[in-house]
Design brief:
Elements: H1 2-12, H2 15-34, H3 36-42, H4 46-74, H5 88-109, H6 114-127, H7 132-149, H8 157-160, H9 162-170, H10 176-192, H11 198-209, H12 221-237, H13 240-253, H14 257-274, H15 278-289, E1 291-294, E2 300-303, H16 310-322, H17 330-350, H18 361-365
Antiparallel strand pairs: 1-2
Helix pairs in contact: 2-4, 5-6, 6-7, 7-9, 10-11, 10-12, 11-12, 12-13, 13-14, 14-15, 14-16, 15-16, 16-17
TPR repeats: 224-257
Enzyme class: hydrolase
GO molecular function, one term: hydrolase activity
């Protein structure tokens, strides 16, 4: 009967109240058994007094057992505060499942799922507070939410990703997905803080987490991307020699139309002072129409070309227009430059929808 009462109290009343009530009853029973006046008043015999003392001992034992259980249970509650016991392993599993749900929302709903996805990742963070990837997702999605809908707070990347960088310091990126997040943070730094040391910050995190003292595997696609990204950060800093070295390392490993274009842009910056854009034009045309180019180490690489990128067409047009040392008839150069500019304008129109968004936006949002 007493066990039934304890179970009933446990389900109806908060545990601490149950323990307090049990202790009070136990004290009352002991007091009753010890005071002779009360014994005489109620007409209690020796046998009844012994039974009351036994009940008091049982109540104390129940109270002690409940107290131990409560203390143990409090260290195994889940972040929402319920009484379900959750092991560290299941915490991780729950967090991973919530991350998958968040990514699926982004894949299914695109920009219109940002608020819902943020909620999923913030919920996941309750179960895995030391997970730098979750912190990154939250910062990245809040950036998108502000950029697109002006929702939330406008923060620079150094503030937005401060926790992510701290967590990556404590637990360095352990897989390619997390290392790619480092690259994305670098892109934010270079795009949004370029006037306030953003390029330097980007280079620092590339070197710290991926490109460590030249001891890295360029054949890994994420490492390759980090190398090219570092090259671009150096390019925007005006460190053209360092930038060109990174692009050439990448091209020696895997020829790429985009990186050939980047290398051509380095040559274009050198050409500005000399007025000789012939080398930049060669590299730009290879990036657009395909062809062979020679690296500084003498290696010849071949790329297929990609004609539907507006920036390459635009920059080729400028290079043709500014190539003062060319022996070609200026009229022919201007005509070719005009053709490239017109192509660039047309491609730019086709690459965006009626809202002005890139047609690749939803694929970008669904990444990861």
């Amino acid at each position: 009967m007493s066990l039934g009462l304890v179970i009933w109290f446990w389900t109806k009343i908060r545990p601490l109240y149950v323990i307090t009530l049990l202790i009070i009853l136990a004290i009352l029973f002991i007091t009753t058994a010890q005071i002779r006046v009360i014994n005489q008043w109620f007409g209690l015999n020796q046998s009844t007094i012994i039974n009351i003392r036994r009940m008091a001992i049982w109540l104390f034992l129940y109270a002690f057992a409940l107290l131990i259980y409560l203390l143990f249970d409090s260290t195994h509650r889940n972040p929402s505060g319920s009484n379900i016991e959750i092991s560290p392993k299941s915490n991780i599993e729950i967090a991973e499942n919530l991350k998958k749900q968040g990514r699926k929302i982004l894949s299914d709903k695109g920009r219109y799922g940002l608020d819902e996805a943020i909620q999923k990742f913030e919920e996941a963070q309750k179960y895995a507070k030391q997970d730098g990837a979750i912190s990154y997702y939250i910062g990245w999605l809040k950036d998108l939410n502000y950029s697109i809908f002006k929702k939330g707070e406008c923060q620079n990347p150094s503030e937005r990703y401060a926790d992510t960088l701290r967590l990556f310091d404590e637990n360095p990126p352990k897989n390619d997905i997390e290392r790619e997040m480092v690259i994305e943070k670098g892109h934010y730094f270079t795009n949004k803080e370029h006037r306030n040391g953003g390029h330097d910050r980007a280079i620092d995190i590339y070197n710290k987490y991926i490109l460590k003292k030249d001891d890295y595997d360029i054949s890994n696609p994420v490492t390759y991307l980090a190398l090219v990204s570092r090259g671009m950060a150096n390019f925007w800093k005006g460190k053209y020699e360092l930038s060109g070295d990174d692009f050439e390392k990448a091209l020696a490993e895997e020829p790429s139309n985009q990186v050939v274009y980047n290398r051509g842009s380095v040559y274009a910056m050198y050409a500005y002072a000399r007025g000789d854009y012939s080398e930049a034009i060669t590299w730009y045309k290879a990036a657009i129409y395909g062809g062979e180019v020679q690296l500084k180490n003498g290696k010849i690489i071949k790329v297929s070309g990609e004609s539907d990128l507006d920036e390459e067409r635009r920059d080729l047009g400028f290079a043709l227009l500014l190539d003062k040392k060319s022996k070609r008839d200026p009229k022919d150069r201007y005509t070719e430059a005009l053709g490239e500019f017109n192509e660039a304008i047309e491609i730019n129109k086709n690459n965006h929808n009626n809202n002005g968004d890139s047609i690749n936006y939803y694929a970008y949002v669904g990444k990861g």
